[in-house]
Amino acid sequence: MKRLILILILLLPVFSGMAQKNAATPEKTRVLIILDCSNSMWDRWQSEPKIKVTQMVLLRLLDSIHGIPDMEVALRVFGHLNKDSYGTQLEVPFEADNRYKLQSKIKTLVPNGGCTAASALTNSLNDFPNDGKARNIILVITDGMDDCGGNICEVARQVQQSGTVVQTFIIGIGNADDFQHRLDCAGRFSFLSGEEMLDDALHEVFFLSDQKARVTLSVTDEHHNPYETEVPVVFYDHLTHAAKYTTLYHYATGDAVDTLTVDPLVNYDITLFTKPPVQIPTQQFKASRHNHIPIVAPQGSLRLHFEDKRIPFQLPSYSVLVRRHGEPDILSYQPLGTASHYLAGSYDIEVLSTPILTIPNVTVRSGSDTDLQLPLPGQLALNKPQTITTGSIFVYKNGIMQWVCDLNPDTATERVILLPGDYQIILKPKDAIDYAAVRTARFTIHSAQQTGVNIK
User: Fold this and answer.
1) What sign has the CA pseudo-torsion 432, 435, 439, 443?
2) Which homologous superfamily is 213-296 in?
3) Would you write out the chain's pLDDT as a tens digit for each of its 456 residues?
4) What are the start-end ranges of the H helices in 87-180?
5) CA atoms lying within 13 Å on the CB side of residue 455
6) Which ranges in the chain are annotated with CATH 3.40.50.410?
7) Which of 74, 224, 262, 402 to pair with 387, CA 20 to 30 A apart?
8) Is 59 left (phi over 0), alpha (psi -120 to 50) or beta?
9) Rounded CA gap, 154 and 54, in Å?
10) Phi, then psi, of 254 in degrees rounded to 5
11) Backbone angles phi, psi at 99, to 5 degrees
C-alpha cells in the first residue's frame, strides 16, 4: 500500500527542479492537477468521503511544497459545475505564489456532475504557458467510477506525444472494482486502495525532492572485457522520440565512472552508436538509487587497403560502403586504407572503384582484426580517332559483358583507372549512321600496370 501511494509523491522530485540543466539556470517546473469532482467522489473511502480525503491530502501537499523555487502549480477540475454538467474548467491558472488561491478553491469544491477526464486532458495543453522553458507535468486524481466517455488512452497519447508534457500521472482512489481498466495507457497509473499511509508518503517526498536519476553505462564484449572505443550515446524520449540527452561513452580505468544525470519522469530508448547501433528500449530510472545499464557489444576491426606495391600512376581516393550482410541500408562510409570498428558479424563490402568491387559476407570477429587486401588497379591509356566519338567500356564477368563507364567524347586521348580484368571498348563516330563505323577492342588490365589501346 505504501509503495502505491508513493507513486503520487513521485511528482515532488519535479517540484524541486530535479532536472535542472545547471545550478545557475534552474529549469521551471509546472504541475497541472486535474481533479475528479464527479458525484461518485461523495462515496466513502475508509474514514471519509473520497472528496474530503483528497482535499486534505492536496492542502497538505501545497503546504509542503510552498517556497520551493522555480515551481508553479495550476488546478483544472471536472464534474463540479452543476448536476447535469459534464464540463471541465481551469479554476486556478499557473502563476507564482498562488498557494492560497489553490487551497481556497480546493476547500470549496463540491462534486456535482459527471466524469469528463478525457476532455479535461484534451484541454490541459492550453493550460501551460507557451514559453518553452519549463518541464510540464499532469497529475490526474480520479475514482474512476463514472462513464468518462471519450478515448482517454488516445487523448493521453496525443498529449504525451505533443512534446509539451514530460509525464502524465493517473492516481486512482477508492475501490479497485470501480475501475473498468487500469488506465496504464494514459500515463503512469497507480491505484490507491487506502488512505492511512498518506502522511508517511508526504514525509518521503522531502527525501526524494532533491534526488536525481544517475545513470552509468558499462559496455563490454561477450567475455566482459571493457569496450575501450569512444562511442556516442543518445537517450530518446520513448513516447515523443525526441533526443533528450546526448553524451560520449568512454571507458575509464580505475574507479572513474561516467555518470549521466537524467530526468526520472521520462521513459527512455537508448541508442549506442556502434556500427551497427545497439538499441536498449523502454528504460525507466529511479531517482532513489544509482542506475546501471550493462551493454554487451562485441566488436572487431575491419581494415581495407590495396596491396603495397609501386605503381606508375596516381591512385584515386576510393570510398567503401559497408552494409550488414543481406541488408540494403548503408551502415558506414569507410575510406580505403583505414580501419574501423564494427560489431561482430557478417558484412557486405562495396568499393566504389571502376568498376565497383563487391565483397560479400566478410566476417568480423570479436577482439580480432580483419584485414582485406585488394588488388591494385591498372591504367588504360586509350588513343581514339581524331574525329569526335562516343563510346563505353565494358567488363567481362563470367562471360557476360557489364557496363563500366562512358568515355569522354571531346578528347582523343584518355586515361582510365580500372581494376584488373578483361574489358571491351565500343566506339562510334558521333555523326556515323552506319553500324559498320562502330569500332571495338578487347584488352586486359593488369594490377599496377599500364595498358595501351589504339583505335583507328
Assistant:
1) positive
2) Carboxypeptidase-like, regulatory domain (2.60.40.1120)
3) 444 344 444 444 444 333 333 334 457 888 899 998 888 888 888 888 989 988 988 898 888 888 777 788 999 998 887 665 567 889 999 998 899 999 999 999 988 877 677 888 888 989 999 887 788 888 888 887 554 555 777 788 788 778 788 888 877 787 776 665 666 677 777 777 677 655 554 445 334 444 678 898 888 888 888 877 788 999 998 877 888 899 888 776 554 557 888 888 888 999 999 999 999 999 988 887 789 999 999 999 999 998 888 888 888 888 899 999 999 999 999 988 889 999 999 999 999 999 999 999 999 999 899 999 988 999 999 998 877 788 999 999 988 999 999 999 888 899 999 999 999 999 988 877 788 888 999 999 999 999 999 988
4) 99-108, 117-124, 152-161
5) 28
6) 2-208
7) 402
8) alpha
9) 27
10) 70, -145
11) -60, -45
Q: What is the DSSP string of 67-86?
A: T-TTEEEEEEEES-S-TT--
Whose grid coordinates read 469532482?
Answer: 37
Q: Fold for 378-454, please state it.
A: Immunoglobulin-like (2.60.40)
CATH 2.60.40 fits 299-374, yes or no: yes
312: amino acid identity, one letter: P
Range 2-208 has CATH code 3.40.50.410: yes
